[in-house]
Design goal:
Strand content: over 45%
Number of strands: 8
Helix content: 10-25%
Length: 232
């Protein structure tokens, strides 16, 4: 009986010690260093004369599609780096307000973009190592725009090929399994030099026509869904 009691107490003490160790020892890092991902989704194009799509009942045409491939590196459970290359289609429009007779002059074009991002894992920042990884990111890069269709505007010319700088930021909601495979949603915004869409009103035009092309950046808002794999 005494021997059985000793065994029971020994088992209880061992269990208590194990629980205590779990509570005091930090969870192991889940950073897997290198990762790759594929993503794609809709984009809202916000350039000069975007309002003309709405005024002509074509608001949905401002939403286009894009896709991207990324390779990244998790420095630790908090910080990471990502290099991303993407392609997609865009929608623009030529001048309406200062064009005789008004009208609607839409055009389309394509882009190739490359960005380098810094990633911040919010759970890692709080000391939480979880399968769900909410992340913020910010990056710099640029794009090459090409393949412009003819808007048939009576006097405004769209520049056909442009290579311009840009910057962006956003939020990623990622869930990763122990195998390294994961899924995520990426909501972000991008801002480019005003020539991104092939139009950059001159200072004289901005001076003579109030409200015409006064904002110096071309903007894009994107919601992407993707798959990611973290290598061990």
């Amino acid at each position: 009986m005494i021997k059985q009691s000793v065994c029971i107490w020994a088992a209880l003490l061992s269990g208590a010690a194990a629980l205590s160790a779990q509570n005091t020892v930090p969870a192991p890092s889940q950073a897997r260093q290198v990762f790759v991902s594929l993503q794609g989704g809709p984009v809202l194009d916000i350039y000069e004369n975007a309002f003309s799509y709405r005024e002509n009942g074509r608001t949905l045409d401002l939403f286009t599609l894009q896709g991207a491939f990324s390779i990244g590196y998790e420095i630790n459970d908090v910080y990471g780096l990502r290099l991303q290359a993407g392609i997609g289609k865009d929608a623009g429009a030529c001048n309406v307000r200062q064009t005789s007779g008004g009208g609607f002059y839409p055009y389309s074009f394509r882009h190739v973009a490359i960005f380098a991002d810094v990633l911040l894992n919010l759970n890692g920042l709080a000391g939480k190592i979880t399968a769900f990884r909410p992340k913020l990111y910010a990056g710099v890069g640029g794009a090459h725009t090409y393949g412009f269709s003819d808007a048939k505007h009576p006097w405004q010319k769209v520049n056909g090929k442009n290579t311009i700088p840009g910057f962006r930021g956003g939020f990623i909601a990622e869930y990763s399994f122990p195998s390294g495979l994961g899924f995520f949603a990426d909501l972000g915004g991008e801002a480019y030099h005003d020539m991104y869409n092939g139009l950059m009103p001159t200072k004289e035009e901005q001076k003579n026509y109030e409200g015409y092309g006064g904002f110096p950046l071309d903007l894009r808002a994107a919601l992407n869904f993707g798959i990611v794999y973290h290598f061990k």
